[in-house]
Amino acid sequence: MSIAASLKQQPQNETERADWWRGAVIYQIYPRSFADSNGDGIGDLNGITRHLDHVADLAADAIWVSPFFTSPMRDFGYDISDFRGVDPIFGTIADFDALVERAHALGLKLMIDQVWSHSSNQHPWFEESRQSRDNARADWYVWHDPKPDGSPPNNWQSVFGGPAWTWDARRGQYYLHNFLAEQPDLNLHNPDVQAAILDVARFWFARGVDGFRIDALNYTMHDLELRDNPPMPEDGKPRTRPYDFQLKQFNQGHEGIARFLERVRGVADEFGATFTLAEVGGDFAETQMKEFTADDKRLNSAYGFDFLYADKLTPQTVCKALAGWPGGDGEGWPSWAFENHDAPRAVSRWADPEHREAFLRMKAMLLLSLRGNSILFQGEELGLTQVDIPFDKLQDPEAIANWPLTLSRDGVRTPMPWQATHEGLGFSTGEPWLPTGPDHAALAVDRQAGDPESILNWTKRMIALRKAQPALREGTLHDCRADGSVLTFERRQDGQRLLCLFNLAAERAAFALPDGARIIAATGTHEPNLAPYAALIAQLES
Ligand code: BGC
Hints:
single chain; 542 residues; alpha/beta; TIM Barrel; Immunoglobulin-like; 8-stranded parallel barrel; 5-stranded antiparallel beta sheet; binds beta-D-glucopyranose
């Protein structure tokens, strides 16, 4: 057992709580774009280690590092060919161990992505599986005969466009892939596959990892009868892919997933104070998130897409999302993200350029006031905007396939700006794999660090506020209300009552503070009316 593994068996200090993650601030790092230590234009593990003090300085509780595993990079690391390996582009397993050690020395928990719904088509498991219908791993992926007319077994469509089935001549069968054809779906109905995946989980926990973000969890098991998905009822949303025309009832969300998660939890519990967080999208996300986190015997938390693709931030969107997690018995704990490596930057979706500064302050206060964990995507603390990547520079297969109809995932994956006046903004001494944002130099870390009024320092203050106020970090949530553009809710804990109030519009709005309320944090003027995007948190008399 490695040193990291033996340390992992014990809490890092005597006073550590097993549920350290409840109310945590989680900082997501997309390794390719965070910091490049060797000048090849692609971020790497050593780059993360060197810049970790930035995250510690923010006082985040944990980092979540997106995939750095061995991969042909067709989906930039979400197509894994060795679940236990580090891709040479990102470094070595020794670099990973050094990252774990540095994170823990800085008091940061370390979470990594786990992709269990699919592997790369270059994974040895798939290479073996596709050889014949009777090899040892023949049933490790989802294979099926064609219909009598040679067409795919059913109507399922892939997220990235086109049918979810690809023909394999050697087996004379189709295989299922909910994402790219290079990402065949693992067959988690097979107990041997479950056992292999649980071994992968043990491998990383034993290396000192504190938690997992589990990718596309509801895709891990499909309907064994392979029933066709029904058409999606007209909902007024844009439809750019065949996938958008279906209600995803049968290709995902099988009831067996919950039972598998009980085994996952058993493994996580072998390693003490661990944290498990599911990514759950799709048409039944709310029900599935509940199912995957129920009764403190499956995962700890889940997050959906309530905010990630919303065109507008409205009080109704917030109250509806929060209402899904009233805090009843046996209910899991929610997590929230406004931005991530798949979704366009929230500031570009939700605010016009003239109001961005005010909007960003309000946004940070809101994210850090929600009941649940707050996930910040790298650069969100700087107020980075979505970058418009021209077609000839696009890298993301989804963006290329659907261009120009989907907002490119590349536009949020641009290099982190560390130093305003350096070539490559301090991200790399080489040519960065994606262009830096034209307005990102002005937002670089070194520009903002020394300015007490910067968004970076505001974000730090909001994180500090959340940590100092138990009601914000862990309290219950009450009375979420929409009054025109004004959103209000209360957070309560041990007799403490905090009123959280946000003007989500670029117009002034009226409001009245209850008698005796004492403001403990505010952004924008609030007298006599709330300025555009003004927000405040006030202590109420209990
Ligand atoms: C990840 C994406 C990835 C997909 C397939 C997700 O939801 O966040 O980046 O392309 O799963 O693995």
